[in-house]
């Protein structure tokens, strides 16, 4: 009954979204689109990067002014006060246009759901509106040189000093940290309890004295992530999210949202590969035809996995291990798709940058696969989660789960 009533509303919303997009944005084309030019970049100056941040901020502001930022976020925090179903409709529609809000992926995809679930009223009022309006970019300061897959083993230390916390440590692989105004940060606040129970979740202003951000160059040639050094930085106690020492529960919300975000893949569809095969006149090659058919099957499977997650969300069931299934399926798909693109190009696949077809877009999408496969949890880690939580296989031996963290052997 409710679904029958809800359907026309969603269609009205879709019509409104389409009309706005048609009037304000350019449709993504499958030939030489802005999206491909952006992906094809294999080196980027600081000026190029600044221009990209400005473009993202301008788009985010436009979406905000039109009522399309934070569609499912309550109006008192700057959102539209709509539904997650409307949010999905918007995402489906916007994907067909050349709108870039990439630098807000951590903020919109992870910080918003985390603050909505765990933030204080004051935190939601302070941080959500400027995030949604495109004024403040966020980054994620979680991983450390010795703690990625095993994130709960972090050693960045926070010590309370009156109304402030003093933090020392090093983070790594922090996307957008060099352009972000704010960061979500995990630090250890209690060394006398098992590792998951002594972590606190902070919000940190990136201009805080003592934060040094050093860009790292990726396999694709660009530097979108960084290592971040924290030396005696001070964070007000009011920027703790959730309970002191209770940050691991808050972190789960962020990580689940991150997996779902990465589940969105590289923004390519089956048609992109078909067009590539047509360009190289390979659609009659029996092996390429087989591989294209397999690619079509993969894209359909991902679509159904997405439907399943949406159905669970509509029914009010929080995402559980489904996000690991989706992350694993996406990882396998981007690996196969990267190989397929270069197989279609054949010997021309060895070219790079502007020498290659579409300025090296396909080489970059091949190289970009590892970012997607590792970021947000590797394939092996997703398999562990599925083995233990879905298949009920015996868990890995983890003596460090019960011992005080102080006594656990650590990476240097
Ligand atoms: C593009 C990109 C963007 C990122 N952005 C951010 C960011 O913004 N903020 C942030 O904090 N982090 C970020 N990361 C870091 C990311 O979360 C970590 O790289 C990831 O969790 C893996 O950790 P690691 O690199 O330390 O690898 P490790 O944990 O050292 O893993 C090394 C290898 O060992 C395997 N392995 C580890 N443990 C197990 C196990 N128990 N069982 C089986 N195999 C295992 C892994 O699968 C992997 O193959 C980003 C990473 C990438 C690639």
Notes on the protein architecture:
- With 412 residues, the chain is of the alpha+beta class.
- The chain contains 13 helices and eight strands.
- It has a four-stranded mixed sheet with strand order 1-4-5-8. A four-stranded antiparallel sheet has the order 2-3-7-6, with no helix packed on it.
- Helix 1 runs parallel beside helix 4, helix 2 packs across helix 11 and helix 8 packs antiparallel against helix 9.
- The longest helix has 29 residues.
- The N terminus is likely disordered.
- Bound molecules: flavin-adenine dinucleotide.
- Flavin-adenine dinucleotide binds next to strand 1, helix 12 and helix 13.
- How helix-rich are the residues, as a percent range? 40-55%
Please tally the β strands and state the result: 8
Low-confidence runs of at least 5 consecutive residues: 1-6
Order of helices and strands: HHHHHHEEEEEEEEHHHHHHH
Structural class from helices and strands? alpha+beta
How would you describe the shape? globular
Straight-line N-to-C gap: 59 Å
The main sheet comes to:
4 strands, mixed
Strand order of the largest sheet: 1-4-5-8
Distinct bound molecules = flavin-adenine dinucleotide
**Number of helical segments with 4 or more residues:** 13
Q: What proportion strand?
A: 5-15%
